[in-house]
Inverse folding.
């Protein structure tokens, strides 16, 4: 399942996107703080087959945080966590840190082997 975080300033529009490669096509649900989100004033959810988008028309401080996209079909369930955050706020799901750590480890081993 693919997802993409969004860094959006207050007052702008935001779109959180979620993709699930599934056959048969999945049904999507969105959650924030364990509460299901439905399309309402200022929030719109659009599903396109294996793709779902949660749109916020006017971001406020209350919109920032962790969202969960859940895709289900008769064969199973999968979910992804996405973050909506203000510019300048660091939100990381750990992948960047892990990648940087692996490169540092590789550089250290190379240095030991070649006696830098």
């Amino acid at each position: 399942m693919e997802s993409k975080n969004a860094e959006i300033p207050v007052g702008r529009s935001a779109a959180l996107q979620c993709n699930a490669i599934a056959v048969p096509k999945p049904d999507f649900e969105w959650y924030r703080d364990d509460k299901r989100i439905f399309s309402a004033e200022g929030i719109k959810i659009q599903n396109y087959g294996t793709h779902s988008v949660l749109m916020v028309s006017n971001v406020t401080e209350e919109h920032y945080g962790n969202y969960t996209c859940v895709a289900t079909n008769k064969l199973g369930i999968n979910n992804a966590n996405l973050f909506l955050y203000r510019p300048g706020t660091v939100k990381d799901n750990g992948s960047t840190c892990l990648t940087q750590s692996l490169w540092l480890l590789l550089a250290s081993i190379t240095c030991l082997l070649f006696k830098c």
About this structure: Residues 2-89 form a domain with the Immunoglobulin-like fold (CATH 2.60.40.10). The helical segments are 95-114.
